[in-house]
């Protein structure tokens, strides 16, 4: 059955390029434009269209963020994509990942690479234009049309017994993040196969930016120039995995160094192994605040760049400082139950 593409256009700003790209995205599709303040959003295929001014500020965008953050479940059952256009080189990516995080927490699913962004001079489409043999402008329009098609077509893969790959770089004796995961694992093990890999203390060398042809050469062999635990353990486990669960203590409002290195080192495998059928989940624990910053890094690194699909409510966000305090948080058992149940709900056949 044909689906309508629901357009949520943020603001009334009009620019010829943005209008042309939006028209290219919508061409050939049945669509409806809704008012997110009054119309139901559940169960929709949604294209968020966000034009930005020179300041990178769109007031309607922030009104939508406020709405999503205060209306849990308002996008339940929906699948989304984001089209962001700006006159400069900045802000389109940050707007996109902020919107995707808020929408995911409100119940929306996102396919891999759910953001198409047009920067001022469109140099971000240099590679796509070269590959397609077209202009930067045409590459932008093609990407927008492709996004609309993927939003309409996306169906999360289901498995009778999903395989989870869990990555962390923490100490079992002291880590609040691992303590939460241990309780979550107990709830998942009866129905999932779980591979857990620790990346600690110098066992992982970061990517140093090999030339594209070298990275491609090693990737075609399922390898990477730097070898080590990524090639020996992570790559084989990821090929088999239906989902990755990242355990993310908040280190200075960022992913830990080894988790960041692991994400960077996925590039060689990404050259030859599509990640579009693999989901990403995360447990984020902050000592004081800033869990949303780390969660947004997971969104941009794995969903927007590496192409993992993003389930609704993909992350558990908690605040705990001293060792052992996470498991004493009020209501934590219920939240762990909901998080584990959501993983099963998103992956099980």
List the helices and strands and how they pair.
Layout lengths: L4 E5 L6 H11 L4 E3 L11 E7 L7 H12 L8 E7 L6 H14 L9 E4 L7 H7 L3 H18 L9 E6 L7 H13 L4 E6 L13 H9 L8 H12 L2 E7 L7 H14 L8 E8 L4 H15 L9 E5 L12 H16 L2
Helix pairs in contact: 1-5, 2-3, 3-10, 4-5, 6-11, 7-9
Number of helices: 11
What is the helix/strand order? EHEEHEHEHHEHEHHEHEHEH
Radius of gyration (CA) equals 20 Å
- What structural class do you assign from the helix and strand content? alpha/beta
Tell me, rounded to a whole number, the average pLDDT.
Answer: 91
**Uncertain spans:** none
Helix content: 40-55%
**What is the general shape?**
globular
Q: Please tally the β strands and state the result.
A: 10
Report the sheet-strand fraction. Answer: 15-25%
Main sheet properties: 5 strands, parallel
Order of strands in the sheet with most strands: 2-1-3-4-5
Span between N and C termini?
A: 21 Å
Give a verbal description of the structure.
The protein has 349 residues and is α/β, with parallel strands linked by helices. Helices cover 40% and strands 17% of the residues. It contains 11 helices and 10 strands. The protein has helices at residues 16-26, 59-70, 92-105, 126-132, 136-153, 176-188, 212-220, 229-240, 257-270, 291-305, 332-347, and strands at residues 5-9, 31-33, 45-51, 79-85, 115-118, 163-168, 193-198, 243-249, 279-286, 315-319. The protein has a 5-stranded parallel β-sheet, with helices on both faces. It has a 5-stranded parallel β-sheet with strand order 7-6-8-9-10, with helices on both faces. Helix 1 (16-26) packs parallel to helix 5, helix 4 crosses helix 5 and helix 6 (176-188) packs across helix 11. It starts with a strand and ends with a helix. The relative contact order is 0.12.
